[in-house]
Amino acid sequence: MEMTVREAIREAIIEEMDRDENIIILGEEVAEYNGPYKVTQGLLDKYGSERIIDTPITEESFAGVGIGAAMAGLRPIVEFMTFNFSLQAFDQIVNNAAKMLYMSGGQFSVPIVFRGPNGPAEYLGSQHSQAVQTFFAHVPGLKVVACSNSADCKGLLKSSIRDNNPVIFLEAEMMYQWKGDVPKGEYVIPIGKADVKLAGNDVTLISYGKLMKMVSVAADQLKTEGVDAEVIDLRSIRPFDRECIIESVKKTNRVVIVDESWPMMSVASHLGWFISRHCFDYLDAPVELVTSEDVPYPYNHTLELAAQPSVEKIIAAAKKVLYMK
Description:
Layout lengths: L1 E3 H15 L3 E5 L15 H5 L4 E3 L4 H13 L3 E5 L10 H8 L2 H4 L9 E5 L15 H5 L5 E4 L3 H13 L4 E5 L7 E3 L13 E4 L4 E5 L3 H14 L4 E5 L2 E3 L3 H11 L2 E4 L8 H12 L9 E3 L10 H6 L4 H11 L4
Parallel strand pairs: 2-3, 2-4, 4-5, 5-7, 6-7, 10-11, 10-13, 13-14
Antiparallel strand pairs: 1-8, 6-12, 9-11
């Protein structure tokens, strides 16, 4: 059945909260206001204020409350109004959630999901447009997931909620109204498995999250020029699907990685290293990256778009690794 990304995420939450009474939701405006992006609409009426909990504008404190609740046996979902605000809770996520299982000698797991919109949207300025996945993917003990469509958002979120480790679940503000088919009935998508969205033989295009729509458009345009692109939706950033990537590179021998992160020490640059390290003998061209420009995001909309990956940049990168003029 067709539903928006917003509806798919909400349905995943409802199904899991009905299944497990230990699941709670914390965050700014998640209850009385029905969520800043209306993902949690109606949940306060359905589950009550003991399970749907409005918090002050204090990300470090409610992230810490969520981590403590997880250690005590609950399974919190902590919503950040934007993942830019998760930087206020960076110490809690990195030094407590990620490390607790290790530092307690396996005595305390932290089954918690931190979710919300990530990356640039429109007219948000430098402090509200950051793509933070690289920060969290750097940290042992965290899992990092990014969904790109309604079906994956539902299936991946259900897996994330059931996971006994802390999961960073990345959405995008611009995606919430996107519509897509969602399978009926119970299903989950395992963390760590990529999805080959389009099979091809000439070049591998790898991305995740919101950018997958852009990559698909680029692949369609390349097709009209005789280029048969393979498109991989990474879905899981940490851990990522090593085998899927290696098998694709063995087939196409050329790779473009598309990432909203800044280029230096990014998700894209790590994947580029991984491919160069493990697929060197199969490569017919250097791995090409299409990332955000290495600048703070501008507020001016023309400059804001220029700083981001684009269909044109992806096509140009594909042609570059194919040595096409």
